[in-house]
């Protein structure tokens, strides 16, 4: 008959086998290398997307600046034309025209900036997706490592449990 000490030995052997199941063998090393490779690809893709987002933001700032400069140049050209035609540069009508051109330039600049910010947000969103993918790969690897260790530990002692049970039944 199995005494409590036999059960304690089986339990401690099970715990030891589970711990040993976490040790790296050749398959575990290949699995780890594959995990690392896939995770690094996801991280690199996230970095590329973040870089693209930064570039889009810079392009948006530059495009917005160009729109503003272009509207100022158009307003100045209008001032030169009006001056050459003999119109008063200080009249309310002339000033309203200049202000309208500048205002339209500001609106266009804001629209350009918004467009590029939207592009940047899309890049950031994709970058976050890649980072989530890297986290998922890590969770999957850790889960498979844990499950593998548990299975090795349980299977390693299944034979001992069966033998002790068989001994108990036949005594």
Describe the structure.
By secondary structure, the protein is mostly helical. It has one domain. It is built from three helices and no strands. The longest helix is centred in the last third of the chain and has 79 residues. The radius of gyration is 36 Å and the shape is rod-shaped. The mean pLDDT is 79.
What percent of residues are in strands? Answer: under 5%
Quote the distance from N terminus to C terminus: 6 Å
Helix content: over 70%
Helices and strands: which structural class?
mainly alpha
H/E element order:
HHH
Q: Which runs of at least 5 residues are low in confidence (pLDDT < 50)?
A: none
How would you state the average pLDDT, rounded?
79
- Number of DSSP strand runs: 0
Shape: rod-shaped
Number of helices: 3
How many structural domains in the coordinates? 1
Largest sheet: none
User: Over the alpha carbons, how many angstroms does the gyration radius reach?
Assistant: 36 Å
Question: Short description, anyone?
Answer:
The protein has 171 residues and is mostly helical. It is 92% helix and 0% strand.
Fold topology:
Blueprint: H1 4-21, H2 26-85, H3 92-170
Helix pairs in contact: 1-3, 2-3
Keywords:
171 residues; mainly alpha; 3 helices; rod-shaped
């Amino acid at each position: 008959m199995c005494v409590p000490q036999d059960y304690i030995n089986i339990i401690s052997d099970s715990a030891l086998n589970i711990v040993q199941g976490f040790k790296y063998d050749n398959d575990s090393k290949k699995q780890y290398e594959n995990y690392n490779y896939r995770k690094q690809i996801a991280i690199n893709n996230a970095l590329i997307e973040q870089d693209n987002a930064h570039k889009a933001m810079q392009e948006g700032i530059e495009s917005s600046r160009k729109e503003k400069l272009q509207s100022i140049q158009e307003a100045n050209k209008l001032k030169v034309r009006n001056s050459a035609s003999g119109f008063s540069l200080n009249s309310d009508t002339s000033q309203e025209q200049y202000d309208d051109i500048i205002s339209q330039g500001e609106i266009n600049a804001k629209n350009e900036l918004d467009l590029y910010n939207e592009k940047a947000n899309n890049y950031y969103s994709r970058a976050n997706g890649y980072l989530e993918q890297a986290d998922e790969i890590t969770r999957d690897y850790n889960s498979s490592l844990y499950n593998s260790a548990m299975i090795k530990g349980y299977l390693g002692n299944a034979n001992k449990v069966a033998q002790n049970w068989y001994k108990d039944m036949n005594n």
